Amino acid sequence: MIPIYQYQLFWVILGQMIGIASYIAIPNPSLFFILIPFSLMYFLRKSIYLFFLIGLAIGFTRITHRINVLRYEKPQFTHFNGKIEKAHKSKNGYSSLIKLNDTQKYIRVKINDEYISELNFKKGSNISGNIKLYDVPSPCLSEAKDIRYREYFSQIISYGNAYNISIIPQSNSFFQDKIESSIKDNFHHPESTIFQTILLGKSSEIPYEIKESFQNSSISHLLAISGLHIGMIMLFFYAIIRWAIYFCVYRLYIMPIVSISKIFAICGAILYLSLIEISISSIRSIIMAIFPIISYFSHRKTVSSHGLMSSIFILLSIWPESLLYPSFQFSCAAVFGLISFKSNFKNYFAQIAFSTLICSIITLPLTIYWFNQAPIQPFLANMICIPIMFIIMSLTVLWLLLFKFGMSFLILNKSISLLISLLIYLSRIFSNLLNSVLLFHQISWISTSLCMISFLIMTNEKYRKISLILFIPFVIEIFNKPNNMFVISRSGEVAILQDGILHAKEENFTTNCWAKTLGAKLSIDNMVKSSVKFTYKRDRRNNRRIHSIKLNNGHGYTLSKQDLNDCPCKIKLF
C-alpha cells in the first residue's frame, strides 16, 4: 500500500488545513509570514511544494471569504418573529434554535415553563415574542474551548431569554415528523430517543445520564450517523434492487444488474441524507461510499485513502470552518487510523480489539482535548456492542421501508426495543467498570496538533521513532496539572481547587465547566464559605463586585481592574 503522504492530494489538504488554521489562530494573518517556514520545501521536492501552495491558497482564501460573507452586527431588538428550527426540553423549560424571518439569521432562545403553559412547542412552528438578548458566552476559563467560532459559522448571532411567547403550529406535515410521531407511539422512553438518534441523527432528547454512560463506555460513536449507517442503507437498497430485477425482469442478460443496483444504492443514501440531520461524519461517509462505485464504473482500482482525502478536500473547500469541529476531527482521524494501520488478524474478536485499539489511540489526544477525560477500557464494550448495533441497524432499515409503505409489525418494534434496551444496559455496566474514565485538565490545541502530526509521521516506518518526540509537549502538559487556586467570575461565583477537588457552594453550569476544564471532581460543600472572607466594592454601574479575598491562613489577594474585566480569572494562592 502506498503511504498516504506520497499522494499529491495529501499535500493540498495539508496546505488547506494550515491556511484555515493560520487565518484563525494568527492575529494579523498574512500569507507572506505563513510561507516562510515552508519555503525550504521548494528545495526538497518542487511538485510537493507547488501542491502545498495550491492547498494553502485555497484554504486561506476560502476561510477569508467565508468570514467576510458571514460578518454581521450585534443585534439590538427586543421583539422577534421566526421559525423554530430545533427544540428540546431542558430542566426548567425549552431551549430552541430560532431562524429570524427578517434577517434569516439564528438566535438560541431559552424559555421558562412559566411562559410556555400548553403551547405546541414543535419544530417548524412560527414563534414570536419579547426577548432579552445577550452575547454568545465566552469560555468559562482561559483554557476552555471557545464555542463562539462554532456559533459564528452557524450564523447564530445571539443568545436570549424569551417571554410573552406566541406560537402558531405549522400546518404542513413532513415525512420526518411522521417518523418521529410513529417512534414515540410505538416505543417507550428512553428507547424511543435512542431509536430516533440512530435513524434520524437527533440526539437532543436522549437523557443526560444515558449520553454519559455511552461516552464513558467508549461506544458513543454508535449513536452518530457514520459509515455503519450509510453502509447499511446502501447495502439494503443494493440488495433490494438487485433481487427485484433478478426475479421480476425477463431476459436478464440484456440488463446490467450490478450497475443499476449500485446507482440505486447511491440514490438511497442521498435520500437518507436528506431525511436526517446532516452531520460532517455523514457527509464524509457518503463521499467515501460513492468513490468505490465511481471506480467501478470507470474500471479503476478502489483505494480507501483516495476516498478519505477526497472527502476531506471537498468538506474543507465548501465548509472550511469544519476543521474546527470535533465531529470532523474525530471522524477523519478514526478512518485515517483504520486505513493506515490495518490488522492482519483473521479472528473476528481480534480484529474488533485491534481496530478499537487503533481508533482509541489515534483519537485519544482529541478525546482529552474536547472532553477532558479518557476511557480506561474501550475494547470489551465495542466487541460486544458493535455486533448488537449491526443487528439494530439492519432491523432499522427494514422498519423504515415498512413505514414508507404504511406498515408496522409489533414483533419488529419489540425486537428493536429489546436490543436498544440491551445496548443501554450494557453501556451502564461498562460505564461503571474500573471507574470508567480518567479526568484531565484542558490541554492546549498546539500540543494536541503535534500529537496528530506525530501519528501522521508514523505511517512512514523510517521516522516512527523520531515522531515520538512530538508527544513530549502533550505529556508535559498532562503532568503539569493545575492545583491549589481560586477560580472567580465577575458575577461573584467562587470555587477553590485543592488536591484535585473543586470545592463550590452549588452545582451549576459554571462550576461544572470549571471542574471539567481543570480536570477536577466537583464537591458541593461549605469550604468556600468557612475558609474564605470577601470584601465587596461597587463598580461604575453600581454593581456589587468582589474586591478582595482572604483565606483564614492569612493568604490574600486584591482584585485589580483587569481581573474584574476577565470572566473569570484564576488566582494561585497556596
TrEMBL record:
Main location: membrane
Protein keywords: Cell membrane, Membrane, Transmembrane, Transmembrane helix
GO cellular component terms given for this protein: plasma membrane
Domain ComEC/Rec2-related protein: 198-459
Bilayer topology: Multi-pass membrane protein
Membrane-spanning ranges: 7-26, 32-61, 221-241, 253-275, 282-299, 323-341, 348-371, 377-402, 409-427, 439-458
Compartments, as annotated in UniProt: Cell membrane
Classification via NCBIfam families: ComEC_N-term (TIGR00360)
Upper classification of the organism: Bacteria, Pseudomonadati, Pseudomonadota, Alphaproteobacteria, Holosporales
Protein name per its UniProtKB record: ComEC/Rec2 family competence protein
